Amino acid sequence: MTDSQIVSASLEIAAPVERIFDLIAEPAQQPRWDGNNNLVEALTNKRVRAVGEVFTMTTTKGNVRDNHVVEFEEGRLIAWKPSESGGQPFGHLWRWELEPLGDLRTRVTHTYDWSKLTDESRFARAQSTTAEMLRASLDRLAQIAEE
Questions:
Q1: For the CA atoms of the chain, what is the radius of gyration?
Q2: Closest C-alpha to 67, from 85, 79, 55, 84
């Protein structure tokens, strides 16, 4: 594993932690704040509430991805590992950590970790994921949460 296999970005958002977490944990909201314009729609119509849940998304390329929730703490942490529909996770992880900085401010850290990715055909795409790309999602999330 190298440091380049874990990419992260943080942003302070002028919104309560609960509002921001709801936007992240509700799959139907994710295409609104996806800064890479990679998501079309959620095929899962319920909010994530626990480790072990799976929510399904359709990408702009028409791929259907199951996202396996592997970390969850209400209002503070959510992380998932994508897989092909019905398959096992590829090994990379998307994590969101929220830290309240008062009633109306929250530090949000978005991390992409591909240190356990084993499918070499996915390495080029994983390597192309930058902190700037993660920041684009944070910026859009902030815009929506601060409305």
A1: 14
A2: 55
pTM, rounded to two decimals: 0.93
Domains of the chain, by residue range, sit at: 3-145
Alpha helices by DSSP H, listed for the chain, are 17-25, 30-33, 123-127, 131-145
Task: Let me know if domain 3-145 sits in CATH 3.30.420.10.
Answer: no
Res. 4: pLDDT tops 90: no
| Model pLDDT for residues 91-116, shown as the tens digit of each residue | 999 999 999 999 899 999 999 999 99
- Tokens for 31? 């295409």
Do the Cβ atoms of 127 and 7 come closer than 8 Å? Answer: no
DSSP single-letter state for residue 67 = E
Burial of 29 (0-12, 13-18, 19+ CB in 10 A): middle
**N-terminal to C-terminal alpha carbon distance within the chain:** 39
| Cα 20 from Cα 12, distance rounded (Å) | 11
